[in-house]
Amino acid sequence: MRGITTDCTSCINANCFIKKHLHLEKMQDYIMEKTNYTCKKGQQFMIEGAPIQGLYFIYKGKVKVLKTGIYGKEQIVRLTTDGDTLGFRGFGTSNRYLIAASAIEDTVLCNFSNDIMHSILKSIPEFTYDMMLFYAEELNKSENRVKKIAQMNVRERVIDILLYLLKKFGHTNNLLNINLSRKEIADFAGTTDEQVTRILSSLKKEGLIKIVNKRIGLLQADKLNAEIIEHK
């Protein structure tokens, strides 16, 4: 990864956990100690099982979070973008990353080392309290996703992911602002490339989506949502 410099005070990511706490007086001392990196598309910067190197915050870009499943198959457990936090699942417990992460596109990262994060948590109670709430919310999301996926068939899981991508990344000219391969969609849905291809083809024939140069656009999000509404 290549080092660069970013300024927290001019950052426009209002949802960034660090940005939300810049108003706290002591935070000004810590933001000067962060490190920035740029990752090229496809580059892995967190390795499952490796020692934790602090927390990462996405300044700009898109990242997929991976977990190794049965028979060594990688599964995408989360997709992240500007302002999102990475590496928190093993922080302060196992001291090793419980997941891996790689850039979907060229990405700029802010990193706060273990020592810096521990100092912040010990010296700024408001930050620590909000971090506890953040963990609770992420656990709730994870549990709800496991429950939902267990009750869905493959078509419903693919539809659910398409709607998630629309909500998370938005769209331009009716095309999603993220371009995942069929394998990546399959890894996220817990199915195979072939099944994803068949389902997307079916949804296209039904006039629910369009595909332009392998990019997907949702033409009738309401109808797609109606298919899975009972699981929400």
TrEMBL record:
Record's keyword terms, sorted: DNA-binding, Transcription, Transcription regulation
Ranges for domain Cyclic nucleotide-binding: 32-87
Residues annotated as domain HTH crp-type: 152-222
Pfam families for the chain: cNMP_binding, HTH_Crp_2
Source superkingdom: Bacteria
Gene3D superfamilies attached to this UniProt entry: Jelly Rolls, Winged helix-like DNA-binding domain superfamily/Winged helix DNA-binding domain
PANTHER family to which the protein is assigned, alphabetical: CRP FAMILY TRANSCRIPTIONAL REGULATORY PROTEIN (PTHR24567), LISTERIOLYSIN REGULATORY PROTEIN (PTHR24567:SF28)
Name listed for the protein in its UniProt record: Crp/Fnr family transcriptional regulator
